[in-house]
Specification:
The complex is a heterodimer of chains A (about 500) and B (about 300). Chain A is about 35% helix and about 25% strand. With about 500 residues, chain A is α/β, with parallel strands linked by helices. Chain A folds into 2 domains: about 5-235, Rossmann fold (3-Layer(aba) Sandwich), CATH 3.40.50.300; about 250-505, P-loop containing nucleotide triphosphate hydrolases (Rossmann fold, 3-Layer(aba) Sandwich). In chain A, strands 13, 16, 19, 20, 21, 22 and 23 form a 7-stranded mixed β-sheet that branches. In chain A, a hairpin with a 2-residue loop joins strand 14 and strand 15 (about 315). In chain A, helix 3 (about 95-105) packs across helix 5 (about 140-150) and helix 13 packs parallel to helix 14. In chain B, about 70% of the residues lie in helices and about 0% in strands. Chain B has helices spanning about 10-35, 40-60, 65-85, 90-110, 135-140, 145-165, 165-175, 175-180, 185-215, 225-235, 240-260, 270-285. Chain B has one domain (about 5-115, about 140-285): Orthogonal Bundle (ABC transporter involved in vitamin B12 uptake, BtuC). In chain B, helix 6 runs antiparallel to helix 11 and helix 10 packs parallel to helix 12. The termini of chain B are far apart. Chain B is built from 12 helices and no strands. Classes of the chains: A alpha/beta (about 500), B mainly alpha (about 300). Chains A and B meet through helix 2 and helix 3 of A and helix 7 and helix 8 of B.
């Protein structure tokens, strides 16, 4: 067997209170697509940060083609041929594509030469991109292309991809996979991190599975079922959400002919939007981020007010009501952005529980707060949704993304909503926790609530939603029953792959 | 009242002098804000520059050394701000306000013995026959070297931000410091350097008031120019040439209202005195309506979490 490209030996990294990585060892071969699997907090991010030079290991070492490799900073890693596409895109909105790419290179050529090289590479790999467009105006898929091209321009030996497909349409995923296969054929190794096990089965040659900072196993994904891999990640058998037969009741909430402009600069306006959700129904709204999801959530939560009659709850006009008045009526929302929108980062979990629960949980009397009751409410959320934290007095910021997500969803679910609107309910949450959040949404609907679930995870929507509609550039498609809907049809409802007309022309 | 007493050529020449302190301070602050730092201490750094420049010029007899000392003084005061915000991670707004109060007090203390003195004059640049050209001569030529330096700085800042690698990295740090850090750029180091540059520019602007424009020392003589510089950067949408236009507009209205006061126009003096501030802000607000493009990380505290 030939020498591996990169081999990790006993990498250990501890943070106060936790060992993020404990004696991690594995090899990545030349031209191999290697998957790294694990739940939230399993230590995947820390591990790739060590490979990319952002974090120094406490002990252990790496060798690159047999030579010792210990990058002190990302530019050393880049110089050695390691490139990384980040989970949360590390792009600069106000700069154009070429400038963004230049920033990720050691010795970028003059912008004009760079622009022609960008065009060249983007055509070779079927990723069309205009070098002079402002990144803030691009779709998520196009932004990812910027990151990938930034890496490709440096002829990487190893490309690290952290959850690359979570924001792409199915067509865009297909294009990405073609690109990755082409790279692999050219001898580039890829370290691929994802929650989506089916993707790993189609793309990856080998997989290493992490749990609680340790390597717990490896497998050949093509010969392993998704379920087996999930169980290796979780360490126990996995429960899939059960959907019981539900009968749909009267209309719980409807929106008719709504058009609003976006309150933010790079936002999307909603155009002539119609939506109906019935008691007992889960309406799934798919679509790529940035197509009006934020705005739709704002309209439903009351952050964006409209004509009174445009939004109606059980026939009662609520378009002019603010969020608190709507909460009183039972319309609750859990926005996508955890830190800053759904939760106040520096306030404790008790305070955060209070912020949305004060109305329905009666945590206030005569203008004074009932701290005891608020704390009890926070503890109930922590208990019911298995939020891993030492206690409700901890700041929201101190929780990992997945744990905080469980908290913000749980907080709304436990308030007995009549209509619940969630945006990306399982974003960044591991398989087991995602299953329990989905189960909670299903139970809620079975108990007589109407749920609107905005998500980019199509598998999730297929699993829980009764009807599916797609948001594309601020327009909502006609909803269709999820049963019998194929991936291709969904892709078309979502508007196909953005900006791909060029590639097919 | 006789408006024909106002000589337009002389007016334009003096407006350039009147605008230079503002221009220097604002172009420095523009660089600081482009790097994502909001330093509200411009007024404090200006007045510190004004007194350190004045003191050194008087003691040494050299206006050049004075300006050098002014830049050093402004930069030195900004080090304090850099330590507070970049190392101790203190709030930008509070630190900047404290810097202004501190600078005003410190300058008054140093300046106690300098009241009523005359600084050595700075020779105007002699361009020979160019000075004698009609109209253009008195407007464009025959100014002091610092005024040309300020124009050169605007052009240099514009070119560096737009065309150079250094400028691109600086803008990137201001736009999204987490992403810049992830790519391996030294966010804190770049910001500290930008803060020092801003401090030096503000110091030069202050010394231009005490050494050339007035020229003498009185307490609090910067009279709010530092605050106007801050507003100017925002309303100029962080664009160097708009800063220049805004500064010259401000200078122009200032000089014009002095002249109008001189010829005894029937508008109360208070209205005339406030007019430069009001007009500059109104014009710049109208100009900046298109797209206010504040750097994405402006005023946010950067904490390098690993």
């Amino acid at each position: 067997m030939s020498q591996p490209l990169l081999s990790l030996k006993g990498l250990t990294k501890a943070y106060p209170g936790v060992i993020a990585n404990n004696e991690i060892s594995f090899d990545i071969g030349e031209g191999e697509v290697h998957a790294l699997l694990g739940e939230n907090g399993a230590g995947k991010s820390t591990l790739v940060k060590m490979i990319y030079g952002l974090v120094k290991p406490d002990s252990g070492g790496m060798t690159l083609r047999g030579a010792p490799y210990a990058p002190s900073e990302p530019r050393v890693a880049r110089a050695d041929g390691i490139a990384m596409v980040f989970q949360h895109f590390s792009l600069f909105d106000a700069l154009n594509v070429a400038e963004n790419i230049a920033l990720g290179m050691e010795n970028p050529p003059a912008l004009r030469d760079l622009a022609s090289r960008i065009r060249e590479v983007s055509e070779t790999y079927g990723l069309p991109l205009d070098p002079f467009r402002t990144v803030g105006d691009l779709s998520a898929g196009e932004r990812q292309r910027v990151e990938i091209i930034r890496c490709l321009l440096q002829d990487p030996k190893l490309l690290i991809m952290d959850e690359p497909t979570s924001v792409l349409t199915p067509q865009e995923v297909e294009i990405l996979f073609k690109t990755l296969q082409q790279l692999k054929a050219e001898g580039t190794s890829i370290l691929y991190i994802s929650h989506k096990l089916e993707e790993i089965r189609t793309l990856c040659d080998t997989a290493t599975i992490l749990r609680l900072g340790q390597v717990v196993g490896d497998c050949i994904p093509r010969e392993t079922t998704a379920r087996q891999m999930a169980e290796m990640m979780v360490g126990s058998s996995l429960k899939t959400p059960e959907r019981s037969g539900r009968t749909l009741g009267p209309v719980a909430l409807d929106i008719t002919g709504l058009s609003v402009s976006s309150p933010t600069e790079f936002g999307t306006a909603l155009k002539n939007l119609h939506l109906i959700v019935r008691v007992g129904e889960i309406l799934g709204i798919g679509g790529v981020a940035g197509n009006g999801q934020e705005e739709l959530l704002g309209v439903l939560s009351g952050e964006i007010t409209t004509d009174a009659g445009a939004v109606k709850m059980a026939g009662q006009p609520i378009g002019r009501m603010g969020p608190t008045a709507r909460r009183q009526l039972g319309v609750l929302t859990a926005p996508e952005e955890r830190l800053g929108h759904a939760a106040a980062p520096d306030m404790s979990l008790t305070e955060n529980a209070l912020l949305t629960g004060v109305v329905r949980e009666r945590l206030e009397s005569h203008g004074f707060l009932k701290w005891g009751a608020a704390r009890g409410f926070a503890e109930r959320i922590i208990q019911a949704f298995d939020v891993r934290t030492p206690g409700p007095e901890n700041a929201a910021r101190s929780l990992s993304g997945g744990n905080l997500q469980k908290f913000v969803i749980g907080r709304e679910v436990l308030q007995d909503p009549k209509v619940l609107v969630v945006n990306q309910p399982t974003w960044g949450v591991d398989a087991a926790a995602a299953a329990s959040i989905r189960q909670a949404l299903l139970d809620l609907a079975a108990g007589g609530a109407a749920v609107i679930c905005i998500s980019q995870d199509l598998d999730e929507l297929m699993e829980i939603a009764d009807n599916f509609a797609a948001l594309n550039e601020g327009r909502l498609s006609e909803p269709r029953p999820t049963e019998g809907l194929s991936v291709d049809e969904i892709g078309l409802m979502m508007g196909g792959a953005h900006g791909m007309e060029v590639a097919h022309a | 009242m006789d408006l024909s007493d106002i000589d337009p050529i002389k007016l334009i020449a003096t407006l350039m002098v009147a605008a230079t302190p503002l221009l220097l301070a604002a172009i420095g602050e523009l660089v600081v804000e482009k790097a994502g730092v909001l330093n509200l201490g411009v007024e404090g750094m200006m007045i510190t520059g004004a007194i350190s420049g004045f003191a050194v010029a008087v003691e040494t007899g050299s206006p050049w050394l004075g300006f050098l000392a002014a830049a050093a003084g402004g930069a030195l005061l900004s080090v304090l701000f850099a330590i507070l915000t970049q190392v101790a991670l203190a709030n930008h707004v509070a630190s900047g306000l404290a810097l202004t109060l501190f600078g005003l007090g410190l300058s008054a203390l140093i300046g106690q013995s300098y009241g009523g003195q005359k600084p050595p004059p700075m020779a105007e640049v002699d361009l020979g026959p160019l000075n004698d050209l009609p109209v253009v001569g008195p407007i464009l030529f025959g100014h002091d070297p610092i005024l040309y330096l300020s124009l050169g700085l605007v052009a240099a800042v514009w070119a560096v931000l737009k065309y150079s690698r250094m400028g691109l990295v600086l803008r990137a740090v201001g736009e999204n410091h987490d992403a810049a850090h992830a790519l391996g750029y030294k966010v804190v180091r770049i910001r500290v350097l930008a803060i020092l540059f801003g401090g030096a520019c503000a110091g030069l602007g202050g010394a231009y008031i005490s050494l050339i424009r007035v020229p003498q020392w009185t307490d609090g003589m910067t009279a709010g120019v530092g605050w106007i510089a801050l507003a100017l950067v925002v309303f100029a949408s962080w664009k160097p040439w708009r800063v220049l236009a805004g500064a010259y507009l401000f200078g122009g209205v200032t000089v014009l209202q002095f002249n109008l006061q001189g010829v005894g126009i029937a508008i109360p003096v208070e209205y005339l005195s406030m007019s430069p501030y009001v007009i500059t802000i109104i014009v710049l607000v109208l100009l900046s309506r298109d797209k206010s493009s504040a750097p994405g990380s402006l005023g946010r505290i950067f904490h390098a979490s690993s």
